[in-house]
Fold these 2 entries.
Entry 1:
Amino acid sequence: MSVVTILQNVFTYTLVHDMIAASVPIILACMCAVISRQVDIINIAAEGIIMFGCFFGVLVSYFTGSWLLAVLVSMGFGMLISAFMGWVYLKYDVNIFVLGLCINMMGSSGTRFLLQTIFQTSGNFVSEKVIPIPRINFSFLEGNPVLKSLFSGYTVTEWLVIPIVILIWFMLYKSVWGLRLRAVGMSEKAAVTAGIDVDGKKMAALIVSGACAGLAGAHLSLGYSCLFIENMSGGRGFMGMAAMQFGGANPLFAALGCLIFGLSNSVANRLTPYGIPNQFVTMIPYVATILILAGSVISGRIKRNKSESAIRA
Amino acid sequence: MEKIVEMKNIHKQFPYVKAVDGGQFDLYKGEIHSLIGENGAGKSTMMKILYGMYDIDDGEIIINGECVTDKKYTTRDAIAHGIGMVHQEFMLVKEMTVLENIILGSEPTKKRSRNIAIDFEEARRKIQYYIDNYHMAVQLDKKIIHISVGEMQRVEIIKALYRGADILILDEPTAVLTPQESDKLFEILDSMRKNNKTIVFISHKLKEVMKISDRISVMRAGKYITTVKQSETTIPDLAKYMVGREVFLNVQRTPPKAEEVMLEVKDLYVPSERELSKIRGISFTVRKGEVVGVAGVDGNGQSELGEAIAGLRRVEKGQVILDGVDITNKSPLQVRKEGFVHIPEDRNDRGLNGSHTFADNMLAAEIRNHPYSRFGVINQKKIMDEASIRAEKFDIRPRDVSNIAGSLSGGNAQKIVVARELGAPTKKFLLAAQPTRGIDIGNIEGIRRMIDDTKRDGVAVLLISADLDEILSLADRIIVLYEGQITGELVNDDNIDEGELGYLMMGGGRENG
């Protein structure tokens, strides 16, 4: 098969749907990184919280049959984990990076442990009793395959991402809460003298970021798929962080960065059947991460050099 | 007049020092009350206590008849009691706009949004009132990093007024201003007094204090000394209260010898994060046995100039030549090898390693050399011996050089830096950046004398200082930096005109506007 045919098969209109589906978990993870970054905390725990979110999503859905309850429990659990992190970090001054690392290791091994204890299985867990997040289909688009692929068949959580990103942007840049939150992140001293409760704001930011990561997890196991697999977070937490960096902690630009990751993910998936060595294909999202980060660093440096220059205007 | 604040028998202990030891202070409505004292006398601590930033160990604070120290008293309470404070170090978020900075903490909100969204229009309207009423020009939509120091100060004042301050505490507000900007500030303060606002003016500049105050309180070494009416005192009296003895800060300057050029800066361009601090094409020379002073308001490129010469900041264009060797864009180590020594601007950041001993700090620049190390192995004894000699010579207290540098007061810490740099055996050129900033008067005198001695030994000295008195007492020639360009060069003799210096510091005399 020629390269052109392969490309024709890969880059079709259905790629858009795939890209969005692949991006949504990353975007939610990215919002976790964005909000923590705004209070000057590098929160690497998204990966671990996602794993717990995945597991508790499946668990609650399996036992109660309610996807909504499952999503809420996952978010709640994410908030609980990050509240714990915040408590240890703010009260006992434990390094936040080490804490994040612990959560990530626990996320991977803790869920494996729970999988074996509760479901007596390892590797993955699939069951018809797990109720997924429902998909919204528009029957009036049935006749048009292109429009149907573009707009139909998304899960509730996939649609929700749009208002979530906009809401976070609004809260950060247009609300009193956000102004104070950003002030804490940019200059703690100035925030203190303005009478702002710095630790309270950091805690609030961490809790909201935990909710985002928890939602990302529930969506991953109940919306993106309908099962639990060990280590199914697959680096999405870190891709979210990379996208956060790319977007300068602005939720709108960061979400755009996530779309690029989503695109590279789905292109990789589509290339797999064409005999390209699997190692190369699975490499694509990571290479994309490196390229995007390098690109944003280089363009940032060029911009900074230009604005700092004493010769150029 | 009605008494609105009274602080009685205040005590405050910090880990190493008793900062306030029986302090007292009071305020009558509508007065300007100055609080004076040397660095470390406890005046800032006293006012930070009034602003709720520090707890007190003992004492009583009464505001508008209410004893606020009965329960926990915080900054939030102080603001609620109408107290505002402009700190010496500005408390502004650099990456935010002037508008955002002013409203931060008490933002007007849109009612329709259930007070979630900020009402920026309402904020502008409110702030405009203060801008018009007190003639304080500020640019609301500029980020803090892009405005001048004088404007930052006005932003701080507006911020305090905007939060409903009736009592405004200004901590050394003129330290960063030119004489002209200071006059402007005094006009603002005067119009605030006419509006029945009460002002606390912290300073050690007695001329200014006499000019603006109604009453003056003096502190020394944490203790309350006295309170006098402006009309019933004089500058010499105040100086005596302040220091407890008579002091002469003006070091007797050694006359310069006309010798060959040691440092030459040619058409230098240096980048900066701040627009006004970019060095744009400056040239000058420093001769052997001469002190050239760089005067100017902080933030006009002085730091950038110093860092560029020291190899700490990239030079975009132009040349720095030290004794015939081109040191442009050389690493700090290479620059030092050419006989360059440097008292850096920020003692804690670049000058000292707080967790190392006096000895290690004093020999840090020479540790690669024999006899202090050989084949990479350090000879601790040689270091201790030399350090002890320098501790004696530069009068570092305590003398025991195995102490940790981080425990020292500002003055002695700076003397360790001086001992490292001026104690170096081979030196041709000294860059002294803000050498006496934040240290006590006794040590200021000592360090200035050491700089003058170095010059007498034939070293060329570039002195960068925001303290005009320091420049006038040490420099033989003065160049004035304004927005990264040289606005003038003056010879510092008996005829020097301080008014002209101030005019140059404000950008006067600059070609092409």
Entry 2:
Amino acid sequence: MEFVSILDMEESPEKEKPRQSFLLDLNLYQIFEKINLYWGENLTSMYCYLPAGPLCEDYRREVYADIRQEALYSILCGLLDQMKDRREIFTKKSEVTLELQKQVWHLQETACYCGAFRRLARELEALPLKSKGMLAFRTYLQNYVDSGRFRDMEERSARLLEKMAGFRMKLIYENDRITVLAEETQGNYERFLQDCFPGQNRQMRSPFRSDAGLTELEQELVKAFQKQSPDFFWETEDFYKSYQEYAEDTLIRFSSEIRYYLAFYRFQQKMQEKGFSFAAPSLDEDRDLYARGLYDLALACSRGSGPEQIVSNDMYFGSKESFFVLTGPNQGGKTTFARSLGQLVYFTKMGLDVPASCANVHRFSRILTHFSVEESADTGRGRLKEELTRLAPMMRAKPDTETPSFVVINELFTTAANYDACIMGRRVLEHFISTGCRGIYVTHLTQLCQAHPQVVSLRALADEQGKRTFRIRRSTAEGTAGADRLAEKHHLTYRQLKERLS
Amino acid sequence: MKACLLYSQKEWENTSRYFDEKAIVKDLGLNTLFLSAAKEIQWEDGKISLIREPDPFLEDTMKKVMLVPLREAEEILYRQEILRDCLEQETFICRLYDLTSHILGEWNKLGRRSGAGTGNYNSPGSLISEIYVLQLFVSGLKQLKELLDEHKENLRSHGLQCLHERLCSEFPPRLEKDLERILEDVVFYADTRETEPDEPGNRGLVDKPRLVMGCVIGQGLKLEDFRLEEVVTESRKNRRTGSILARAQDYLNLRSKNIFSVRTDTALPDQIKQLEFEAVRHIVSCSKSFVSAFAGFWDQLHFQTAFYRGAVNLKHFMDRFYIKSTFPVPGSRRTLHFRELQEVVMGLEQHMAPVGNTCDLDEKTLLLVTGANQGGKSTFLRSIGIAQVMLQCGLFAAAESFESGIFPSLFTHFTRREDSAMNSGRLDEELGRMSQIIDHLEDPSMVLLNESFASTTEKEGSAIAYDIVRALAEADIKVLMVTHLLSFAQRVQDELQGPECPTAFLSAQRIELQGRMQRTYKMIPHEPELTSFGLELYDEIISP
């Protein structure tokens, strides 16, 4: 297999398409922000498209399993550090105007590049890699660093730099003139200062600007020096001309794309330090889809200092079960649970670890979500129309393969009359079940719990005192959503209001 | 570098002051002492020609030092010894104080507030100030050394001799020579020479640097790792840019491979300035440890000298009003005896020598002073308190002789008759303060009580006073008390005094003179009486 990309065996068609709405609905951007924060670079775009197909998903999963070995992770982080150095040198090279200096910066840039990949090739050699992606990359890299061009470039740049490191300049400034000599000095005045004030190791600051360019004075000094050692500068110019375009695109692409895994791994480690668990999901279609200790990772990112503040839940789909209908009190953790289900499918598809303590996930071709834009009731047909407009493409979408989609629906038709809403909800459920989809439907309409034999009724639980627990269990729906308790808590029951108003 | 003129091993720290220093200052009237110490008297033919305006620094120093009690007899003797030297070598202490004032004053002018002398070399301006500060320190230390050398024979105290030795070892001639060389080398940057060279032959010459340095060629041809090889200031003919000679020289430079002129119209002159700046900055920054080692020293030396300078002034004032002075003797905690002890504050305020008292209160835990109003009881109590404070800071005391224990834990609790109107709020406050004192008592402690618990009835006041005094005495706290609570005094005499609580009773003396009872302001041993002769005072004033 010829190595192309560490992310995908084939280019994902979604890469260029507009971003899908589930990213926003599942609060995934909050997670990406946290990943970016821990990593220090903005990588959001990499996480915004799904791989091209099941094979690509497996390709990523295998690579991520390799990354999870500490050794490979730190080797690759080392590569990225060197790439960063290279970019900094490149920036300096682009800033400077003096041709002579440009050539020297270029020399250093090349040397940095050669050093980075030479080291990587050496370090990967002995590593027990398993994934197709990393194995193909290793072979590719090995061939590359063994090539004659690379060897020549590496050897020449190193030799020139070594020569440069040996350069010593002596300058004599007197009576408004400067004399430049290629000589070593003894630092006599430094020694006098040392004797005078023993015990301090001060170094004179450079009298020139610290940016990459050379001041006029530095240029004059360098030119005077050049006249005394011209060979080096000729060779550097020659090198510059021969290796103007030195970098291999595939390798540069690798060093950019590998951040997808490394950044997520770093993020995962930080979250695990706080106590949140992650699991590599299995993909066994013969077993039930299930997850234990499933939680909303976005919620954990935004306000979770520790897992004790975030409720986790266990869930499974039996073999005959397709859809959850989730009812329960307001603010009882329904939406959070629905999001965590969507995240479970998303991270599985991305080949990464999922926010749960263990999980088995099936294959889904797409993730379809429908969340009400805002939860406050806004009467009128405008809103219903808007909801239906968003719903239509979801329902019309014919799965291009036999693999079904995963659907997350949150509070549909809240502005329609109860009777209408029940019928519409039932139809939506029937549609998705008939096309083989799985998913969750969060609603306040308890009638939908019996809408279809493949529907499972879930409830957000309250404890004996009526306090919300954010736990989700299989249970038949009750009539009320616990609103009376909330009202009592806020002293808004009839009796309380009478008392308060009397 | 340490000055060590106040303590043999450490520098001044404004800590462990008397617990309620404000009360001590107010009750004993110490502000008068601080102020007198700040004023210098100039004599001419045995007459006062001038009393200078008070020096606020002297006043402040006196106040600070007097309010931090010493704890050991050796510490007291250490200061007394130095003070003796200063009283004998007045010109020495005056010149020393003038020198430190001068150094600190010049330093302020150089911008100490804005950071000169603190290692701020970030602009050419601050670098130049820094060089001047360095020069100031070097010349100041030279003068200090000369002054100490000059008086070497006459300074017998351990403190001043050690200062001399320390200075010689921490500012040795070699360091002095090196620092002077550095200052000379950077003359082109900041001219610290004291005289302008304006001999006729020098005209037209300017100071130019000769700098030789090495460096390496680093990343991207940037020059780095500069190391100085040679730094000298040379006198050179000042060439004008356009002169024929200059142009000829520049032409020659062009033909040479490795020489170029920096006197061009380009950015070079500015950049060469930067080069000079960095070289000088490096040199001066090396002296940072020297400057910072002596920066604190000047402040300390100035402060510590000020104490002795102030003491000399105070002595002059006391002499002027014929107030006696003696170096008091620190004794054991049971000791308290003195001859002709005077209340110096009153003497300074009233410009006359107060009546002296002689007492032997050795082995007494409790002293009760009773007797006639306006008889000098409070003055007597104050004179002991003042002498105690002066003893404990190493000063002389106003007496022919004075010996007492050391009580760093000294408290005063004075109530003046005039503000002791019966008032429960005031009693509350008074008892509150008493309770604070009790909280902070240490072993040993001395408590001066003047007319305490007067803000209630005699009966209640006596009961309170008895309980408190009894408790204090049993805890072996030295209590000196002036009281008009006669039933309390009576009760102490009847029930308390004895081996458990050795008590002395004193009373203001009254003698009959020309048919009338007169006060002498002397304290004599006297058993408590039930009258304080207030009636007499009443008669004296109301019905003459």
